[in-house]
Write a structure and sequence with these properties.
This protein is mainly alpha-helical. 66% of the residues lie in helices and 0% in strands. The chain folds into two domains: 216 residues, no CATH class; 162 residues, no CATH class.
Length: 395
């Protein structure tokens, strides 16, 4: 078992999804092949398990098409989005996450960020996080949360979402489709959602432990993050997850706007609140680097400030004061060069960011959250007006 952890943690990089309890259970069911993740087949399978019984019952009971008496299943976008879009996206995101983490985490070592003396502790750190990923305890917590939600009275859930199923207030009045959606479809969605929240915690734990190593950060690195610029690619692992989460409430809001005359302006606070929570949660792994990078920048400004000062004093002594310079090693060092080059070193350290995220990584987080919400707003506000407002805000 230890060899398996070393192989997964140190050589192939650390996957956030491969070999956890949910992954192992799906492999036993034959949904995961011996080699690979089987994300496409699993996305299709769980989506159909969640939606097909609901759709078949609704069709049989006359609640499927909009022409049905009362509200139909097709009119409740949230139900269909949860089953046909969010669940597949959660699973497809596993493939993206696996590729990014297994490909990028070894870069800490190969780039020289991890000192040769810390290679062994670094690999042991990966092994420890791999063990944490594979433990059953978080899944016990996830199961407990789902069971707790299942035992809540129907009146505490979004009852209107069940209007197509027969009753909004009495669980006994629900047909089979409503029961299946309430206890099976939602459970599948919640398991996948909570699994991703656990993976965010895993990534945060991983980054926190790595940040405690004595990394060889380079304050003058052109990536502006001391050599940690490659971390900007990690948020793409969460893009599909954020889209899946955002699209479910957005679909419910779209139903309210189209069929119940809800004012989109009344949804503004809910949209902003949801966006802020999602961005804070999924950006949290990168916040652990703030202290490390801030300390590195602070020390670099002192170090490079002293170097630039010494270089400047020697230049003045030789060329302004016309005095001999006995020790001119600083002036003749090829890696320092002229005054402009030494100043550039200081400016590079000064421009070092405390957060290893740039525009590309921020867009990977913000766009998936915002797109479904903008779609809701576009139901009542022309797209041109929305774009003009955004451009004015960014200008």
């Amino acid at each position: 078992m230890h060899d398996a952890y070393v192989r997964d943690g140190a050589e192939a990089g650390l996957s956030l999804v491969r070999n956890d309890l949910l992954f192992r259970l799906q492999r036993k069911l034959g949904l995961v092949p011996a080699n690979g993740l089987g994300v496409v087949r699993r996305a299709i399978f769980w989506s159909l398990v969640a939606w097909l019984p609901v759709a078949l019952w609704a069709y049989w009971a006359g609640h499927f098409r909009p022409e049905a008496t009362g509200e139909s299943l097709l009119q409740h976008f949230g139900v269909n989005a949860r089953c046909l879009i969010a669940i597949p996206l959660f699973i497809l995101a596993e493939g993206t996450s696996h590729r990014l983490t297994t490909g990028l985490i070894p870069y800490f070592e190969t780039s020289g960020l991890v000192r040769p003396s810390d290679v062994r502790p670094f690999r042991e750190l990966l092994v420890g996080v791999a063990r944490l990923r594979d433990t059953v305890y978080p899944w016990i917590v996830i199961l407990g949360l789902i069971v707790t939600l299942e035992t809540l009275p129907l009146t505490l859930t979004d009852t209107h979402e069940l209007a197509w199923a027969g009753s909004e207030t009495d669980i006994d009045g629900l047909g089979f489709g409503g029961w299946w959606y309430l206890h099976v479809s939602r459970a599948i969605f919640l398991v996948l959602l909570l699994a991703w929240l656990w993976r965010v915690i895993l990534l945060t734990t991983l980054f926190h432990r790595i940040s405690k190593l004595d990394l060889q950060l380079v304050p003058t690195h052109p990536d502006g993050a001391g050599g940690l610029g490659f971390l900007e690619r990690f948020p793409m692992a969460f893009s599909l997850v954020l889209l899946a989460i955002s699209i479910v409430p957005a679909s419910k809001w779209a139903h309210e706007v189209l069929y119940h005359g809800k004012d989109v302006h009344a949804l503004q606070s809910g949209m902003i609140g949801l966006a802020l929570v999602l961005l804070l949660v999924f950006a949290s792994p990168y916040l652990v680097w703030v202290g490390t990078l801030a300390r590195t920048r602070k020390q670099a400004l002192l170090d490079y400030g002293a170097l630039v000062g010494e270089h400047g004093r020697l230049v003045r002594r030789r060329w302004i004061d016309k005095m001999p310079v006995e020790d001119d090693a600083v002036l003749t060092a090829p890696e320092l060069g002229p005054v402009a080059d030494t100043v550039a070193l200081y400016e590079a350290a000064q421009n070092m960011r405390a957060l290893p995220l740039g525009k590309q990584s921020l867009l990977a987080l913000v766009v998936p959250v915002a797109l479904p919400m903008l779609g809701v707003v576009a139901l009542r506000i022309p797209v041109k007006e929305i774009l003009l407002t955004l451009l004015k805000a960014l200008a």
